[in-house]
Amino acid sequence: MLELNIKSKSEKDTIKLGYDFAKELKLGDVVALYGELGAGKTEFIKGLCHALNVEQMVTSPTFTIMNSYIGRLNHRELSIYHVDLYRIKNVSELDEIGFDECIHSKNDIILIEWAEKAGNRLCKFDYTVRFELDDDNENIRLISIKSTVN
Ligand SMILES: Nc1ncnc2c1ncn2[C@@H]1O[C@H](COP(=O)(O)OP(=O)(O)OP(=O)(O)O)[C@@H](O)[C@H]1O
Ligand SMILES: [Mg+2]
Predict the structure, then answer these.
(1) pLDDT at 58
(2) What pLDDT, on the 0 to 100 scale, is given for residue 149?
(3) Which of 53, 54, 64, 142 matches a 20 to 30 Å C-alpha distance to 17?
(4) Which residues keep their CB under 5 angstroms from ion ligand 2?
(5) What's the rounded mean pLDDT across residues 72-97?
(6) What are the tens digits of pLDDT across the range 6-20?
């Protein structure tokens, strides 16, 4: 069981947090990320992907909905699916990216920004990561990471 609440004071802190969190992950994990526009979800994912030895550029899949990267975990190659559901208008669009197959696959890791937009199609997730902005300081984010109790 993992439950962390962290105050990030910079983009760098958030990237480091993603990097450190990656060591918790195992093949098949689904990570649901929540937080408004500009909250830091993609920055966190950049750190996470760096820790998983991704060499490709990690960018927001805002228009493509899903990016896939190749990484390594415990000396094994794996695919990392980076999904951003902000722009989807209907959950049926999830079929086009093979969402159900991705979340049930045992051989990769899937990271979902705007996970709330998947509704009840997100029937399995292993971690939730929530980002909150601070009213007084534009560089502060309150980040909570929780593992799912199964
Ligand atoms: N503590 C912080 N942690 C993360 N990002 C920060 C922080 N302080 C400032 N920033 C800035 O906030 C922005 C976060 O952008 P990012 O793309 O990660 O947001 P996002 O949550 O993925 O948004 P979107 O929903 O649009 O995909 C970046 O421009 C970054 O420089
Ligand atoms: Mg993003």
Answers:
(1) 97
(2) 79
(3) 64
(4) 41-42, 60, 113
(5) 95
(6) 999 999 999 999 999
- The pLDDT assigned to 150 comes to 66
Q: What is the pTM of this model?
A: 0.97
Domain that holds residue 95: 3-147
- Per the structure, the count of domains in the chain is 1
Domain with residue 113: its CATH number is 3.40.50.300
> Which residue has its alpha carbon closest to ligand 1 atom 3?
11
Residue 110 CB contacts under 8 Å (≥ 6 apart), including other chains: 29, 30, 31, 80, 81, 83, 102, 103
Pairing of strands 127-133, 30-34: parallel
Beta carbon of 18 within 6 Å of any ligand 1 atom: no
CB of 13 within 6 A of ligand 1: the answer is yes
Q: Please tell me if the CB atom of residue 49 comes closer than 6 angstroms to any atom of ligand 1.
A: no
